[in-house]
Amino acid sequence: MSPTSFNHAQEVADKFKATQPVILNLQGVDRDLARRLIDFSSGLCYGLGGHMEKVAHQVYLLTPSNVEVSPEERRRLHERGLHDA
Question: Is residue 41 within 8 Å of residue 62, measured between CB atoms?
Answer without folding.
Answer: yes
